[in-house]
Amino acid sequence: MTDRFDPAVADRRWQKRWAEARSFQADSNSAKPKSYVLEMFPYPSGRIHMGHVRNYTMGDVLARFRRMQGYEVLHPMGWDAFGMPAENAAMEKKVHPGTWTRQNIATMREQLQRIGFALDWSRELATCEPNYYGHEQSLFLDLMEAGLVFRKESEVNWDPVDMTVLANEQVIDGKGWRSGAPVERKKLSQWFLKITDFAEDLLEGLGTLDQWPDKVRLMQQNWIGKSRGLQFCFRLAGTAPGGACDIEVFTTRPDTIFGASFVAISPSHPIGEALAAERPEVAEFIARARAGGTSAAEIETAEKLGFDTGLEVLHPLDPDWRLPVWIANFVLMDYGTGALFGVPAHDVRDFEFAKKYHLPIRRVVADSPRGADEPVVEAEPGAGIAVNSRFLDGLASDQATAEVIKRAEAAGWGEGKTQYRLRDWGVSRQRYWGTPIPVVHCEECGPVGVPRDQLPVVLPEDVSFELPGNPLDRHPTWTTVDCPKCGAAARRETDTLDTFVDSSWYFIRFASQPDNRPFDRAEAEKWLPVGQYIGGVEHAILHLLYARFWTRALERIGKIGIKEPFKGLFTQGMVTHETYESLDGRWLNPDEVAVAENGALVERATGTAVRLGRVEKMSKSKKNTVDPEPILDRYGADAVRWFMLSDSPPERDLEWSESGIEGAARFVQRVWRLALAPKGNDGHDAALLRKLHRAIAAVGEAIEGLQFNKSVAALYELASAIEKAKPSATRDEAIRTLLLLIAPGAPHLAEEAWAARGETGMIADASWPAFEPGLLVDDEVTIAVQINGKLRDTMTAARGLSREDAEVLALALPKVQAQLGGGTPRKVIVVPDRLVNIVA
RNA sequence: GCGGACGUGGCGGAAUGGUAGACGCUGGAGACUUAAAAUCUUCUGCCCCUAGAGGCGUGCGGGUUCGAGUCCCGCCGUCCGCACCA
Fold first, then answer.
1. Which residue ranges does the record assign to the Methionyl/Valyl/Leucyl/Isoleucyl-tRNA synthetase anticodon-binding domain (predicted)?
2. What is this model's ipTM?
3. Which helix (H) or strand (E) holds A595?
């Protein structure tokens, strides 16, 4: 035993002991209450970064805390192992994606183990292995049989040089991020999941997620984007009444129907395309309208373009009123019906369009019935009173809306409808490194699901990346199969699944992993839903929405009895660091920067000045990352863990700093010195005992609320109270309890100290201490004395002092007398044991 | 444009409407030491030649209250999400 805690020895020792004892293996058959703690599993990009360390430390503290509280805890880890970086590495480094990925997993697993996380490694999984994605294929077939999978033509970003599909983020200034070639829009037949079937349910379910951040719920709500309105038909002028619907539109503002001055259709609308076939000038306009990217920035600056088709439609409420039909670039084909009617006076976008093309702007909503003739200087999208609207005049906007819908439904030209912004989930990726979609295309039978007994459809590993495009497409044998239905020669589907599919059910597979099926329902339901899910807010929408959808889909087909996969969600902040920039604009690594004698920052190599940049999220491009590994070497796992928990509230960003990690390391040594204090003292220390019990309560409450910075502060207070206390039996007990309280955060230190103090068993198996409620308060209290709400003095008194006595004591204080100057107070307010406020 | 969050010392941050600044970092002074590291003690919001039984202080301006960092109204600023969604 030395007077310094040596993490280099202790960390390994206890990691080995926990592994040997299988301390963190979750027993599905345990009689204890269950607790499922999960952090978002990592993409195996190469090495663990500080963001992982922070995320997993938080989850680990909670998992260890729950275990000490007597729960059977499931705290697993795995790898979100499919995805593009592996293919990029394959092309750049000539290494197979599988090799690259599996090496990264091995490295990162070892790194995680060095930090001493209480993980059940027996349940580890990687989504790139057939024993995971094979089960995913079977679930895909289940959804297909249930009618939740369909094929649709859809536009993609196509890189003509790399011959590959690009995600929106890979299109930069309209060019492929790798090839630099202008990106084309190309229509491909792709696989979709019917998430829109669940739009209403996903929206309603948000109401039950009271342990989710409001922010995330709101983001999902906006993403689903429900709106109520009227869907109705315009008939083209010159066609017979009662015929088919010519142009169908959707509007959330039926009350403005008399303000319509044009109808606009999307460049992709069938009517436009039909016209284009006959009139070259239409085709030319459509081509121009479609050019330009789909990114937000481009759309923002895009000028509104319109083309008057010369066609006219009849106003549904006045057959003598004709509206021109325009093709407009701002009308989206995949929202609503791909067509709308424009009301320039009350829609910003329609206003801009009408100004440009000199279309009528007619006020139909005003603040009051008298405002009918007020000029419209800018779009007024708000609600009000209907004007210039015939039978609607005088009605409030919502009444007018209801009236128009009523009439439309009665007359049969339209109906009230709910629209969602949410689109169906396109899961096809023309990529190699992903789960093969288990389908065979047969000329006779169409797309046919691969029979269950032929699963998994294993991704072939004998592929090359020498040529551009998806290597699966040119595989000599893999694509050639017989149709499972008719036996004729057929071709295997070469699209793979979006990796978000892999992460949509991994938490179920963690809970139950039989060999012959994706999961056992009864076993999975013992653990699910996940009690606490922790991850970055960047997954607030897509991953969390897809997982909620997938769980609901499984529920609908009877595979599982829950709809919501994650009961509690916590989104932690990022780990940030200062950035450094050389005078010629290069980003510098922190270790390339030194502090000169005059205190200025200089570049180590050249001695030239360095500019201190903003504090930003650690990223390779800004070169402000700090690799956890050397830090672990230097300070040990517990100091790193402790720093991740202290300083910032978990939901906010944490700035990495040298002084911060050193402070944490100092605390580790402080606790160790306390642990070395001789035991077996006599005597009682009532004040310390109260502080101890207050700390037990405060730390427990803070961890429960995931406020780790507060639990750290409470432990610092306790440690310094113990340091200041004289030896006593109480102090011995306080030291023992301190070890229990730090055990979730600094487990190696806690174990080492536990053993050093001669305690039996591992602290990992110990129980969380209880506190005595009666000991949480002091006998003596400090009472604030205010005059007119301003603090003037304080006084010490026994707890439970009566109102009357408090008032008398306060009025007798010299400072109070001086302030009052002999006058009588008008009123005295007493909050027992807290304060006396004298109103003069 | 729409939606949301947040503004507290030199810094990160604490504060059921009741003593603002817990705890940590940084910095000052001191102790121990031949010296350094480590450790310990102590001070550390601002103002004032009046150092006090003093004044001012939680982005700014109002309001409610005996009492406001906290509640209400209006601004300003920063950050985040969505974005031609009919």
1. 685-802
2. 0.94
3. strand A593-595
